[in-house]
Amino acid sequence: MATSSAQANMEDVPSVDLMSELLRRFKCSDKPDKRLILVGPPGSGKGTQSPIIKDDYCLCHLATGDMLRAAVAAKTPLGVKAKEAMDKGELVSDDLVVGIIDEALKKPSCQKGFILDGFPRTVVQAQKLDEMLEKKGVKVDKVLNFAIDDAILEERITGRWIHPSSGRTYHTKFAPPKVPGSDDVTGEPLIQRKDDTAAVLKSRLEAFHKQTEPVIDYYSKKGIVANLHAEKAPKEVTTEVQKGLQ
């Protein structure tokens, strides 16, 4: 039964999609396997670099927040457990998150490896991840540390303004509107997202330094951390990433 439905599904896939997937698999066949972790504070550029790394090395991108939501929506056994915890206002346990990552790694798109973003955030999580990978006979190959000074981040993030109805974004220093505080097209007032204020950033950075810096130390001892100068222009950071992954 499963086979016939799979065949039917394949028949419904447009040829152009099939061709691009075949080409992708052909291109990926000679790529080395890579299991990567991206670490960095909010606004350090992980979101800009991860799609480039994903395409260059044929990896799957695992953002734990998205995966949890998907598991809950799909009502997988782990998703059901995660929802129970969330409904009670509890944090989802490390074991559950590692279990959801474990399940995700079975997907064909993760065959060549993965990029983990947003996890592990603590040393205990890093240890649990290592144990799970060890059972599969693999390990984390490289941890990319998007190192950036807090003051630069503050300038980057707190300078962001948005025109709510169109989504147009501005930056007081790097891409200012023609008239301060107003959208170039409509003249309507710009707003700052809640997460982009100095107070929110300060608390997020404090949490990052406290929780995540020990994770960098943990992986540094294994000799697998590549420190990037994340304050540089995106193209230069991409070059650093490529060097770090050689």
TrEMBL record:
Transmembrane stretches, start-end:
none
Q: Does the keyword Transmembrane apply?
A: no
The organism sits in which domain of life? Answer: Eukaryota
Which InterPro entries did the record assign?
Answer: Adenyl_kin_sub, Adenylat/UMP-CMP_kin, Adenylat_kinase_CS, Adenylate_kinase_lid-dom, P-loop_NTPase
Name the keywords, alphabetized.
Kinase, Nucleotide-binding, Transferase
Q: Which GO terms describe its molecular function?
A: AMP kinase activity; ATP binding
The record, for SUPFAM superfamilies, names: P-loop containing nucleoside triphosphate hydrolases
Q: What does this protein do?
A: Catalyzes the reversible transfer of the terminal phosphate group between ATP and AMP. Plays an important role in cellular energy homeostasis and in adenine nucleotide metabolism.
Under what name is this protein listed? adenylate kinase
> What is the originating organism of this protein?
Juglans regia (English walnut)
Q: What gene name is given for the protein in this entry?
A: LOC108999611
